[in-house]
Amino acid sequence: MEVGRWCGRGRALAVPDLPTTVMTRTLAGLVADSTLGEGTNPRAGRRVLAVGAMFTGALLGTLLLRSYGLAWPLLASTVVVSAVAIGYRE
Description:
Order of helices and strands: HHHH
Distance between the termini: 35 Å
Largest sheet: none
Number of helices: 4
Strand content: under 5%
């Protein structure tokens, strides 16, 4: 139920190209693979970190947008994505 409400909230915002499916799939995977969902929690820590990172990014982006306008959140996201891309190794 809650995952559906998250998806509905994202759609209600009507932001173009907002990928609500990423959050929905992460949360659904976390719940389905939990011991309550009769799973074995193969990547529970990683999924919890992903949800935390998405929440933190949304919170910081909102604070920057409301305080300083659009330029600072765009700059911050560009810096973070660039740093992750440079530091990524398989």
